[in-house]
Amino acid sequence: MKKQYIIPIFVPHLGCPNDCTFCNQKKISGQLQPVTEDDVKDTIEYYLSNFKSNDMYKEVAFFGGSFTGIDVETQNKLLNVAYEYVKQNKIDGIRISTRPDYIDKPTLKRLKKYKVKTIELGVQSSNDYVLKKSRRGHTFEDVIRASKLIRRYRFKLGHQMMVGMQDSSSLDDLKTAKDLAKLKPKIVRIYPVLVIKDTELEKEMKAGRYEPLELHQAIERCKEITYFFNSKKINVIRIGLQTTDTICSPDKESSEVVAGPYHETFRQLVESAIYYDSIVEKIKNLNTNVKEVEISVNPRDVNNVIGYKRENIIKLKEMYDVDIKVTQSEKCPEHKMHIKVLKKFKDFKDDKEYIK
Ligand code: SF4
Questions:
Q1: Which 3 state secondary structure label does DSSP give 56?
Q2: I need a surface site. Which of 21, 107, 152, 193 has the fewest CB within 10 A?
Q3: What letter does residue 262 receive in the DSSP assignment?
Q4: Is 168 exposed, middle or buried (0-12, 13-18, 19+ CB in 10 A)?
């Protein structure tokens, strides 16, 4: 499968009638500018001239969460600009993200005309109580209906879910993942909840009615969910919000994040935790007292095996007294690893250096 290049275009839902407790778009909508056709053209041109390779799958992505909720004339104008590039074979596809209650047959027929290929739905939770608490304004039944319709019209279906919403337990979060898998999405995004300035959720937190997840809790929940989606062969294309000038560490002045499990390499933390569990399991299965092992992985996976600030290497030494040597091999497929025992505990005891 060809690697993908994404050309992201953020389309804010100005005048959004909804009132999700974790969102501040209503409060900041006066500061947001509507996206114009020229903006779309300029962005596409900029990305096309900066892509390093031409032999990649290139997709224009209208992000913002409610694309089919903005007025139809504006949608069509923006889509048309991207569609011109599709017709000239300069880009391969268009994707949009939207809410489940903004999907119906006429909308899907219209999107087909512009060769939209992928539709991502902001689901957040499959628990109606949690959805109501966060004032999403739709139910999980809407997600089921929209997902089935999207697949029936032969779009590629994507889901976005949140982890750590108000009153959502770890079991609720995992249940959301399981409920989504039944709807057969091809791709998912997992977003741990961050508390954003000037939101209802911030008020709830200050009133003691919402406690954001600690970083380690968010990693644990996202790890279980990622395991699950991997086991169902559903591609997890993002874990954690993209770092921007405003979505960044709460310590920074420009940050809109006031609390929650923010980390600039959140996905790496989750993937490293998955590798850690997998290494421990493999070592235990070796059925011998292991002292030093060599792990061969694809170069893309080296950082995840080692862990953020060498966390996995340090933990394996502290918990199991095992030294890890990581080597890179292009022959090793991504997300696979090969473990070789270099020294058993017995060899180590015979080592003169050790005896001295
Ligand atoms: S997250 Fe909710 S309130 Fe914010 S723009 Fe989307 S639908 Fe509107």
A1: coil
A2: 152
A3: -
A4: buried
Enter the tokens of residue 4. Answer: 């993908």
Tens digits of residue pLDDT in 267-289? 999 999 999 999 999 888 876 78
Q: Is the dihedral of CA 330, 336, 340, 345 positive or negative?
A: positive
Task: Name which residue sits closest to atom 7 of ligand 1, judged by CA.
Answer: 18
CA distance 271 to 303: 10
Query: What whole-number distance in Å separates Cα of residue 222 and Cα of residue 81?
Result: 37
Q: Could you confirm whether domain 282-355 is CATH 3.40.50?
A: no
**Domain boundaries of the chain, sorted by first residue:** 4-264, 282-355
For the domain 4-264, what is the CATH code?
A: 3.20.20.70
Q: What letter does residue 310 receive in the DSSP assignment?
A: G
Pocket test for ligand 1, best of 20, 120, 135, 194 (most atoms within 8 A of CB): 20
Q: Are 134 and 172 contacting, i.e. CB atoms less than 8 angstroms apart?
A: no
Pocket of ligand 1 (CB under 6 A): 13, 16, 18-20, 23, 25, 65-66, 99
CB 115 within 8 A of CB 139: no
Q: Where are the beta strands (DSSP E) in the chain?
A: 4-10, 57-63, 93-98, 116-124, 156-163, 187-192, 195-196, 235-239, 257-259, 290-297, 323-328, 337-344
- Residue from 10, 11, 18, 196 to probe ligand 1 pocket by mutation (most atoms less than 8 Å from CB): 18
- pLDDT reading at 4 higher than 90: no
- The pLDDT of residue 355 is 41
Residue 231, burial from CB neighbour count under 10 angstroms (0-12, 13-18, 19+): exposed
For residue 64, give every residue at least 6 positions away whose Cβ sits within 8 Å of its Cβ, in sequence order, or none.
Answer: 10, 11, 12, 13, 97
Separation between Cα atoms, residue 313 and residue 298, nearest integer Å:
17
Relative orientation angle of helices 105-113 and 72-87, to the nearest 10 degrees = 30
